[in-house]
Amino acid sequence: MSTQSVFERAATVLAGPSAPDTPRAVWDALRTAGALPPLDADPADLVALVGEAGYHGTPAPLAETLLVARPLLAAAGLAAPHGPLAVAAGPLDVVFAHPDTGNRVGPPGAGGTDDAVRVSGVLSRVPWARAADAVVVLTEGPSCGPVLLLLEAGEFLRVEGTNLAGEPRDDLVLIDAAVPAERVRRIPAALAREAQWRSGLARAALIAGAARRCVDLTVARTGSRVQFGRPLSHFQAVKQEEARLIEEAALVDAAVGAAAAALPTPDTCELPAWIAAAQASASVAEITRIAHQLHGAIGFTELSRLHLATTRLWSWRDEDGTEQAWCRRIGRQVVEGDPLWPQVTGG
Amino acid sequence: MLRQQVRDFLNAERAAGTILGRPDSWLTGWDPGFTRRLAERGWVGMALPREYGGSGRGNLERYVVIEELLAAGAPVSAHWVADRQAGPSILRHGTEEQRRRFLPRIAAGQCFFSIGMSEQHSGSDLASVRTRAERTGNGWRLTGTKMWTGGAHVNDYAIVLARTDESADRHAGLSQFIVDLRDPRIRVEPIRLLSGEHTFNYVHLEAVELADDALLGHAGDGWQQVTGELALERSGPERFLSTLPLLIALVAELRRGACSPEQHARVGRLTARLASIRQLSLSVAAALEAGRPADVQAALVKDLGTRFEGELINEAREILPVAARFDATRGSYPELLATAILHSPGYTLRGGTNEILRGIITRGLEASR
Ligand SMILES: Cc1cc2nc3c(=O)[nH]c(=O)nc-3n(C[C@H](O)[C@H](O)[C@H](O)COP(=O)(O)OP(=O)(O)OC[C@H]3O[C@@H](n4cnc5c(N)ncnc54)[C@H](O)[C@@H]3O)c2cc1C
Q1: pTM for the predicted model, two decimal places
Q2: Domain A190-345 has CATH 1.20.140.10
Q3: Residue A290: CB within 6 Å of ligand 1?
């Protein structure tokens, strides 16, 4: 065990039929195996680990915790709780908990005496909220700058929901919840942007993993399934489709890999992350289409494990930002920013 | 005229709260009450002759009715196979006694059929079926397991393809049987879709004793009979309208807010493709009505149409991006989107996969040169 890296140990924990099957069990198993990545882990390793979670459909907010919540908390100067974390962004009504009663100018809540706030509103479809120790929330503060809040379970009402794969996606209802100053930070606009692209990259890394799962399951299926006296993989039409599936999955993997490699250089890591998010979302349709087609009817049922990957892919492509939004961002940057080619090549 | 009557009927159903507007309603919308109300108006078994309880109106008028039903996402799956396949097949191949026994009940919306063709090892390669029917003193004994049998848990009968002659060549030794699904020697075992829904089954046939009159058509003609039915099965409006209710819901959403030129253009492009595929499908229906062979044309329609059903989903996602939610309010745009997505793997598989269809198309092309 000691010769293995944290990443390898973690990958082993997430694999196989006896892999932990609840968020708590995932955390416990990782901790026991000494495989919970430290806060200063290599970002590329974290992305790879999230890919593993995507491959196995690991039932826990690993992507959210490792790639989004923890780095954001660190950047905002807040200590990260040890357990699983959820991330939510959205407009909320935020007012100072202790309004400056002497200030009679401006809208209610415009002035305050400290950073303690009261928040109201609904955060919709928050991944894994019911399993998280705390929720990192990004929203606009009372005097119109972005703020980061750390909410603890019990500070909101939860309306449980799921995505197409049955993963928890809960609505969090906040009714004038008080958040003490030590869990509120005003953050620069750049960090709010970083929160977005980090979420997109985290989702893309999950998609890359599940895409690889689709490839593995499909190659195994067409290699063993016999029709007309031959394995399916021997038919030209099947080979052609299978090749396209492999290509599309490789494309996503490459985009995510490039974004992961760019992470340590903050100045130039935004565009690669957008590109990874956009390409991952865009490739889902083709990947799921071919994997299902080549599986035949069995893949359309609960009998095959394919649906564990495809229903997640169909959900993930629309979470943490849509394909259209990513494409629009890339397009705007290409049209309004530096010349295209240097942007594509990263300088 | 007929079309308007159907629309009036559907409007009344909608007002009555019958669930309408669903994608893929011919797979999952099992509602015998709805079927009976349709049958009362003469819209089930429409193309069957009057002497057998049908309304003798021919395939083109039937086409109008079923496309209206599908566009409205009406719950038609109970009678779907009886109306589309079993009825015409019994009319064509059945004995006079079989016609009198089944056709009036089909047209009355009181007798529902499943298709028992596929098996675990026989999907695309249907001629490899292993279910056997052995001759007994006064009938047949059927043994084997069918798979993917839609509706076998709720329907009355299945038309089962079985091997009756081991020695003959693959295609020659097959026969079709009408099998009563309530037979105690039949065990129906559910297979759940990836959405968790139950429409598919295994059908275990454990030495089912059949009388002589269970044979449909002639022994050994099963393959020809099956492939003869396929043009009907493949070219109908259900091969491009499964996700139309989603497009209709999308347009309703767009009407509510401001619609950008880009959104207009994309809806326009979808509409043009839809209309073109429909024309092609109609031309196959006309050919079949005139008794002309249309196997290759039917395969073409199904390949184009079923791909369109899937493409429509991705276009909808781009035109009006929302997260698809199976747990959203029934009938809302995110829920319809989720249903269409979760059903999408089926479109290009059922009724013969698109790769197999393209094989038929290119072989047809070679034959015509
Ligand atoms: C929604 C749905 C409803 C259905 N309902 C019924 C029903 O009611 N009754 C019934 O009997 N059956 C039913 N089926 C079964 C259906 O007919 C089969 O799924 C279909 O024929 C494909 O067989 P398979 O699933 O075994 O796939 P396979 O035959 O294993 O094929 C897997 C993949 O390989 C490809 N392939 C196979 N052979 C070749 C080749 N020679 N060249 C190129 N590509 C090839 C196929 O195109 C496919 O993409 C249903 C299926 C679905 C999805």
Answers
A1: 0.88
A2: yes
A3: no
